[in-house]
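Hi all, long-time lurker, first post. I run a small reading group and we've been trying to get comfortable going from sequence to structure in the token notation. Rather than ask abstract questions, I figured I'd post a concrete chain and ask someone more experienced to write out its structure so we can walk through it together at our next meeting. Sequence below, copied exactly:
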Amino acid sequence: MNPKTYIPFMHLPTGRHAELVLPELETHSILSITDGLLILVHKQTRAMRLFNPLTRCMSADFPPTLLEITKMSCYAITAVAPSRSIVEQPILMIALDNDNVAYFAKPGDQTSLHIQLPFCITSALFFKNGFYCTDNEGSIWEIKPDQTSVNCVFYHDIDGRCWHLVQSRTGMLLIDFYPALAGMCKDALRKLNVFKFDLTANMIIPTNDIGDCTIFVGLKQRALLVTPTKISIERNSIYISFAPSFIYHLKNRSTVSNEQLDNVIYCPNIMMNLGVGLMCGLS
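-- Answer (accepted) --
Happy to help. Here is the structure in token form:
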């Protein structure tokens, strides 16, 4: 068995680890991960597909207009708008970290939508009826592909940070830290900040309290917030799975090393419920 087909997963609410054997990775490479779903690229045809590693369901190909993206050796930022019915397909948003274009497409379609942006996307999240993104300075933008509209809903101007949007129980959170230093110096993570984003007032509010929740930030993965069911998962903390990996405690701004998080793929409950829905009706 090819060792590259063994992928470590972590079920976020319980903290359970599992190593899945995915033969699909013999013919595909992982472009990005969102909500536990893998965006795969076929190694020969370069076709892009959505893949649910738990149900082993593979979507139809995304439009061939996205083939050029799969040939580029850049970090891809992705978000998925879930299907609202069995017959409806999910919408994938994909952007490259060094490009100011967002691409939107559905599995099985022949064409994709390209929207030119006045910024480069650093993180993305589908929330309510729109895609929300951050730029290099921490501003938050709303993109509505059905209206081809791009609006800045919060302006920020702090460069040199890493920005992540996270969906919370009641809205959105904004996280920032120094990514280049996170794996080399624990003191760098003491500068990590969390903000509540008030979408109505278009403002951010600093916080060091997310209650009994935990945030997980992973490489090539969208940041996720869950309510742990197992006592071993630290509450009011942020798990950062860059190598080496850390647990950041919001209350006292302390860090603890945790090598179990290195290169793990996060598997939230939303994937088990939403992921099956995302794959409904797909080949």
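A couple of things your group might point at:
Residues 180-185, 270-283 have pLDDT under 50 and may be disordered.
The domain at 3-279 is CATH 2.120.10 (Neuraminidase).
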